[in-house]
Write a structure and sequence with these properties.
Blueprint lengths: L6 E5 L33 H4 L8 E2 L2 H7 L26 E2 L1 E2 L7 E3 H14 L3 E4 L1 E2 L11 H11 L4 E4 L17 E7 L3 E2 L1 E6 L4 E6 L6 E7 L14 E5 L12 E5 L13 E5 L1 H12 L5 E4 L5 E2 L6 E2 L19 E4 L3 E4 L11 E4 L2 H18 L5 H10 L12 E2 L5 E2 L2 H4 L6 H4 L4 E2 L4 H10 L4 H8 L29 E9 L7 E6 L5 E9 L13 E9 L11 E6 L7 E2 L3 E5 L6 H13 L5 H7 E5 L4 E5 L1 E2 H8 L6 E2 L4 E4 L4 H4 L18 H5 L7 E6 L33 H4 L4 E6 L2 H7 L20 H10 L3 E6 L2 E6 L7 E6 L1 E5 L6 E5 L1 H14 L3 E4 L14 H11 L4 E4 L18 E6 L3 E2 L1 E6 L4 E6 L6 E8 L13 E5 L14 E5 L14 E4 L1 H12 L5 E4 L5 E2 L6 E2 L19 E4 ...
Parallel strand pairs: 1-3, 1-6, 2-3, 6-8, 8-9, 9-20, 13-14, 14-15, 15-16, 19-23, 38-42, 38-45, 39-42, 45-46, 46-47, 47-58, 51-52, 52-53, 53-54, 57-61, 64-71
Antiparallel strand pairs: 4-5, 5-37, 7-37, 10-18, 11-12, 11-17, 12-16, 13-17, 21-22, 23-24, 25-26, 26-29, 27-30, 28-29, 31-35, 32-34, 32-36, 33-34, 40-41, 43-44, 48-56, 49-50, 49-55, 50-54, 51-55, 59-60, 61-62, 63-65, 65-69, 66-68, 66-70, 67-69, 70-71
Helix pairs in contact: 3-4, 12-13, 19-23, 20-21
């Protein structure tokens, strides 16, 4: 049990009286131990240390110097000793973090460095460090803790560090130096189910730490955005997650319905239960359909094993590595959720000395303990060998054999950026067979390959070091992983393995290839050396890897190598910058310290000043000291020939013009007066939609825009019954024409809501259909704008602007108005649902063919039967008018998709295959490409880094400034900068800054620029004007902002339905829009993708005027692209970037040409929608309100799974389920279709019959059943597949999404 192992923990101290530190049964302290216990406040070394707790030290001088004061208990609420008040540590020896400094404890790098130094001296076997800093602003050669950890590792001590708790966003992983073993966090196979019984006897299981008596009380919904919540006293309250602080006065309990975050907490003044959105919406529906709702809540129980299973925790930080993308981080994962261990009695979570805690801090300690065992077994293994053993033997599934999911946005199958090698497997790690080993030269080669200069590396290593020429390849670092972040065509890399298993063995190779990678050759070369001791190393294997087949520059595509054995400037005092001298020149620590004092004395006034200034002497693992110095003193010391580095101390925290080309709908004449004989396909067949009428419910129209010219258009369709209404600055006779045939406005509902008359004193607005905001003008352009050639945005994105149906007629219904927002964010669009309902009503009367609605509300508080706009849309659909709605812009979080009613066609947003590359040339001639809307002239000036958290950034006037992502450009924009390079997480939004040019890059490029700045005395940069690039290597992705499924109101209804381009779409704008240029501008959002689909439906309806709205949806979904039009995979931008699935893009990217001839459609009518509402549990009166007449649900209640959607979504299969679908033949009369099934992982799909024969006009509708059966024994996330009916010409494909949910028997 590791009795000879010594674990060092750098953390917040220890509570020595805890039972877990008893030394019962332990033998003598290992003789190699050179550490000690240091007495202090409430800590007696003689009493509190024993054969278990053999070392206890504390370090606070660095923190005090940083804070410029004494041990102030109003700030540092802690014991001045190794005693722990935070309760963060489990086994503590080196206290470097202190309560009260940061929300979770503050630690200075100077204190940490001293702790590392002592730990190296004392003889620990492994160091556990559950602390992290900023990333990527902090690089390996500048961070004191990274330098100290480097020296520990070079002395053979593995340093295990936390990955951080800022997940699930990509590129958030901290502690990314390759000598650190970085640990992610997973859940346990344990849960705390809590039964909720509603007054209608419906039972749910949520999760909580509630252990009190049963609660039986009234039940109410608390709307966090409303000021009109009734008295909640004595009731149980349902709340949907909100950033708004909520006061729960006198409530009996709270049910928090929220996105999964894996964090359970015990509320002290009331019972708090945690549920997901699906359960929350079911409870909300019960509340809204019951006169006096009640609820009963039982205490939680403990469930271990199936169906609970391992997941990567939502909070666990994710890769890729933002400092060095070729170094995989995290390395490994371990349990870190609700871990029961000893706590300080001052911790509010403590009960009888123990408590549950969560974070990568916990998972780090798990791995540290395992390494202690491994070091006992293999004392000569290097830290790299230990890491290799853990990574190569880890579980890639749960121990029970189930897939490991990564909780987040959306939940997905875990990959190496979530969990590194996988879930740590201690037993297998003890006998790994082969290891990928490394030593100090490997780390030096890494720093050389990463571009650090010789002086920086020398500062790190502690002695003069020169990089080899040529520079080593970072891909050749001998890691137990291969990460290629920028493969263009092919690359060759090398690995070496050391045999730690049987002496005589052979090795084969087994490749699991990444998508789009071809492994052409792998050569195993024998490079064994006679100097190796045969029993330890039989042979070393060099592995060469050659990858070909070029892929787009979108994402590292990974392959896994598995080697299988045959049988197994005024001087202001600066807080203690540590002075780093490198390797010790003397083994006597006292002489080393004396040399430090002597050096300091030579720069200060007296010996006494030197002693006062000195905070720490680092004399064990390396030579250096921490001292309180002014800037000039620090500069002088840095010039001393024996000084390698002076590093400031820091405080760390305890842990269109292109759209239609892309969619192949672009063969158009240059103007309406041109001949249309060259037009082909759908545009030709529909005369570009000349008879279609598109209704746009939005912010109105700017009628003078060229896109609303009616050149070449024939008479207005005779069925049109609408009109143009005159108003402020809008003359119906002048401004309407044969293109803009309808223009109305609705404002009474908004004025009634706001309690005021129409005023334009604070914001610009017109009491008419004239568009002040520009949003409606933009969306109307995309849907049905006329052809306007040679349009660009300052020269970018040049081409012909037009709508999807360029000859369609447009009817504008203005319901959204430029108002001051209630949240104080300034002017913006406000739309009243009462006004929207009237607009729907008028549009139905007027005779539109399709309605485009780029508006959305709150979810999941608003349900289909309570939202007037949903009711209005229902009536439009029941009259045969498709309603196309925006999915919303709250992505990439899961369950954020809006407009989720099944009668709506909900649209997600993708990028175009277009970018605006902007060349950045650094002073060292290195050329990088960001993206921008900067159109010149070229900028060439100094380059500086702006630390958004620092007050000491220096003068940046006239310079180009690098800024890592921040919520505000202030105060950069006030400093007279020449330009700003924003390094940030990808969000697909490229803006044109008005005060200065702004260039957007990702973290990888930003860290390259930062490294250049930090290693150059006078860095410079030159920024060239952006250009327009269309086609490869740019490709289609689901936009980061696009809202995602699953549907939070009705999980069995797939949303979004379809995706379309919605990023940087060039269209007309209001001249008042500051983002416009010559009447046009680029805009992004699902507001833009929605009218793309509306325009396509206008064409389709011209071709198929009798199709129902459901038939149009089916045609779009079943024929969509699942890859980009160029055949490349479609990724979903977000956290992390991943291959897109139906919750990202529904059926896929809309394909207009194929949708015109789908072969079969999944059709529906009003009765289907009524059955849906019945299956959802809406009562008869609620449904009757929607329908507009008395309606009664059938008995038995219909199954929601039988709704005839062009998708199958099963949110809670336990064993097996059978559902029904019907298809209508809209192709050739005599057709035979065969079923092609792609089953989701672990799910068996069976279709009956497997062949559909359409033999006559009378036999156009056929039904079939689908049986789904799960083999999973645990609760999983969603797995995806498809069902395709094919006749050899038409492939009618629908997405299948299945989630296993095992009911817990209470």
């Amino acid at each position: 049990m590791g009795s000879e192992a010594i674990i060092g923990v750098i953390d917040s101290g220890i509570w020595p009286e805890s039972k877990v530190f008893n030394d019962q049964g332990l033998g003598p302290i290992p003789k190699r131990w050179r550490g000690k216990c240091v007495s202090g406040e409430k800590f007696n070394a003689t009493i509190h240390c024993n054969k278990k707790l053999i070392g206890a030290k504390y370090y606070v001088s660095g923190l005090l110097a940083e804070m410029g004061g004494k041990f102030n208990r109003t700030i540092i609420q802690d014991f001045k000793s190794s005693r722990d008040i935070i309760g963060h540590a489990r086994i503590a020896a080196y206290k470097a973090c202190w309560n009260g400094v940061e929300p979770a404890g503050g630690c200075t790098t100077a204190d940490m460095w001293k702790a590392f130094d002592d730990a190296i001296h004392d003889g620990v076997d492994v160091l556990s460090v559950s602390i992290g800093g900023g990333i990527p602003e902090d690089s390996e050669v500048d961070k004191l803790d990274n330098i100290a950890a480097f020296h520990a590792v070079t002395k053979g001590i593995p340093v295990v560090a936390a990955a951080g708790n800022a997940g699930p966003a990509a590129q958030t992983v901290v502690n990314v130096a390759p000598w650190l073993l970085t640990v992610a966090a997973t859940t346990l196979d344990r849960s705390f189910p809590t039964k909720i019984t509603l007054g209608n006897n419906q039972t749910f299981l949520a999760e909580s730490l509630y252990t009190g008596p049963e609660i039986s009380t009234g039940l109410a919904f608390l709307d966090s955005s409303s000021h009109d919540n009734v008295d909640m006293k004595g009731k149980t309250v349902l709340v949907f997650d909100s950033t708004t602080p909520i006061t729960f006065k006198g409530v009996a309990g709270v049910i928090f319905s929220q996105k999964p975050d894996d964090l359970l907490q015990r509320c002290h003044s009331f019972a708090c239960i945690f549920a997901d959105y699906e359960l929350g919406t079911d409870i909300l529906q019960y509340i809204r359909t019951t006169r006096s709702p009640t609820v009963r809540i039982n205490s939680a129980t403990t469930l271990t094993g199936l169906p609970a299973t391992t997941k990567v925790a939502a909070f666990s930080c994710r890769g890729p590595n933002s400092v060095s993308p070729a170094i995989l981080k995290p390395d490994i994962a371990a349990p870190g959720v609700s871990i029961l261990a000893a706590l300080s009695p001052f911790d509010s979570r403590e009960h009888d000395g123990f408590g549950l805690d969560t974070g990568t801090s916990m998972s780090t300690l798990v791995v540290s303990g395992i390494i202690a065992l491994l070091k006992s077994l293999h004392p000569n293994w290097s830290p790299a060998a230990v890491r290799s053993a853990l990574v190569t033997t880890a579980w890639r599934t749960s121990p029970s054999g189930e897939p490991i999911f990564a909780e987040g946005s959306n939940k997905k199958l875990a990959d190496p950026f979530d969990y590194g090698g996988g879930l740590v497997n201690p037993q297998k790690a003890s006998k790994p067979g082969l290891v990928y080993d490394m030593g100090i030269q490997d780390y030096i080669n890494y720093m050389c390959s990463a571009g650090y200069n010789d002086s920086s590396i020398s500062g790190m290593v502690g002695k003069i070091t020169k990089c080899p020429n040529p520079k080593p390849s970072i891909l050749d670092m001998n890691l137990p992983s291969i990460t290629i972040p920028n493969l263009e065509k092919k690359v060759t890399l090398t690995r070496t393995v050391t045999n730690v298993g049987p002496i005589k063995c052979g090795a084969g190779r087994n490749w699991k290839k990444g998508q789009g990678l071809a492994i052409v050759d792998m050569v195993i070369k024998d490079s064994s050396s006679p100097t190796f001791r045969p029993r330890e190393i039989l042979r070393r294997l060099q592995i060469g890897l050659l990858c070909v087949q070029s892929r787009v520059d979108d994402r590292p595509l990974m392959s896994a190598v598995v080697l299988m054995l045959g049988s197994e400037a005024v001087d202001i005092p600066q807080p203690n910058p540590p002075v780093y001298l490198g390797e010790r020149e003397n083994d006597d620590p006292e002489l080393v310290t004396a040399s430090h004092h002597q050096m300091l004395e030579s720069f200060l006034d007296s010996k006494e000043d030197a002693h006062k200034s000195m905070i720490y002497s680092y004399q064990h693992g390396f030579s250096g000291f921490a001292a309180l110095l002014t800037s000039s003193q620090a500069n002088k010391i840095s010039d001393h020939p024996e000084v390698i580095h002076v590093i400031p101390n820091r405080i760390l925290k305890l842990q269109t013009t292109r759209t239609w080309d892309l969619l192949e709908l672009s063969q158009i004449p240059t103007s309406f007066s041109s001949s249309t004989t060259s037009v082909k396909g759908l545009l030709h067949d529909t005369n570009m939609g000349s008879e279609a009428i598109i209704g746009v419910i939005d912010t109105g129209i700017w009628p003078e825009s060229k896109v609303f010219n009616d050149q070449g258009l024939g008479p207005i369709p005779k069925r049109w019954r609408g009109k143009c209404e005159p108003g402020e600055k809008f003359n119906a006779t002048i401004h309407c024409n044969k293109k803009l045939i309808g223009a109305k406005y609705y404002v009474n509902g908004l004025l009634a809501e706001m309690g005021e008359t129409f005023k334009t004193t604070t914001v610009r607005e017109f009491k008419s259909n004239r568009d002040a905001l520009g949003h409606g003008t933009h969306t109307a352009t995309i849907a049905g704008g006329s052809l306007v050639p040679n349009v660009s945005f300052y020269g970018l994105a040049r081409g012909t602007v037009r709508g999807g149906a360029p000859r369609a007629r447009i009817a504008s219904y203005k319901v959204c108005w430029n108002t001051m927002q209630k949240d104080g964010t300034g002017p913006g669009g406000s739309c009243s649902t009462a006004d929207m309902l009237k607009a729907f009503d008028d549009a139905i009367h007027d005779g539109v063919d399709v309605l485009s609605v780029s508006i959305s509300g709150d979810l999941p508080e608003d349900t289909e039967v309570d939202k007037p706009d949903f009711v209005g849309a229902f009536h439009a659909v029941s009259k045969g008018i498709p309603v196309v709605a925006a999915a919303s812009n709250e992505g990439p979080k899961a369950q954020t998709v809006a407009n989720a009613a099944p009668w709506l066609l909900t649209v997600a947003a993708t990028t175009l295959d277009r970018s605006f590359p902007t060349k950045i040339t650094l002073g060292n001639k290195q050329t990088l490409f960001g993206e921008s809307l900067f159109t010149g002239p070229e900028i060439s000036t100094g380059l500086a880094y702006w630390d958004s958290e620092s007050d000491d950034n220096g003068d940046v006037k006239g310079k180009i400034v690098l800024v890592f992502d921040t919520t505000s450009t202030y105060p950069v924009e006030t400093k007279g900068v020449a330009g700003v390079i924003y390094a940030q997480h990808p969000d697909d939004i490229v803006d044109r800054c008005h005060a200065f040019p702004c260039i957007y890059t990702d973290y990888d490029l930003g860290t390259d620029i930062l490294q250049y700045i930090r290693t150059t005395r006078s860095p410079t940069a030159r920024i060239s004007a952006a250009t327009t690039l269309t086609g490869l290597p740019a490709t289609t992705k689901v936009a980061e902002f696009s809202s995602r499924g699953p549907n939070s109101v009705s999980p069995a209804i797939l949303k979004p339905d379809i995706a379309a381009p919605g990023v940087s779409i060039l269209a007309a704008l209001s001249p008042f829009d500051p983002n416009g240029h010559d009447g046009f501008g680029l805009a992004s959002g699902t507001s833009m993708s929605t009218p793309v689909v509306s325009g396509i439906i206008a064409l389709l309806k011209s071709l198929h005027p009798d199709w129902s709205p459901a038939a149009f949806r089916s045609a779009l979904v079943t024929t969509a692209w699942r890859t980009s039009p160029s055949g490349e995979p479609i990724f979903a931008e977000g956290s992390n970037k991943k291959l897109a699935d139906p919750f990202d893009y529904g059926g896929g990217l809309v394909n207009p040409q194929r949708a015109a001839h789908p072969g079969l459609v999944y059709d529906m009518g009003i009765e289907d929608y009524i059955n849906y509402m019945c299956s959802k549990g809406y009562n008869d009166s609620s449904i009757s309100r929607v329908i507009g007449k008395k309606t009664k649900c059938p008995t038995p209640k219909p199954s929601i799974l039988d709704m005839n959607l062009p998708s199958i979504t099963i949110p809670n299969i336990e064993k097996e389920v059978t559902l029904t679908r019907s298809v209508t033949n809209v192709g050739p009369i005599k057709s035979v279709y065969k079923a092609v099934i792609e089953s989701p992982l672990g799910i068996t799909l069976t279709v009956h019959p497997t062949t559909l024969v359409f033999s006559s006009e009378d036999k156009k509708v056929l039904s079939f059943t689908v049986k789904a059966k799960t083999s999973h024994k645990v609760n999983t996330g969603y797995f995806f597949g498809s069902l395709t009916w094919t006749d050899g010409v038409h492939d009618v494909k629908i997405p299948v999404s299945v989630q296993t949910r095992i009911m817990i028997k209470s």
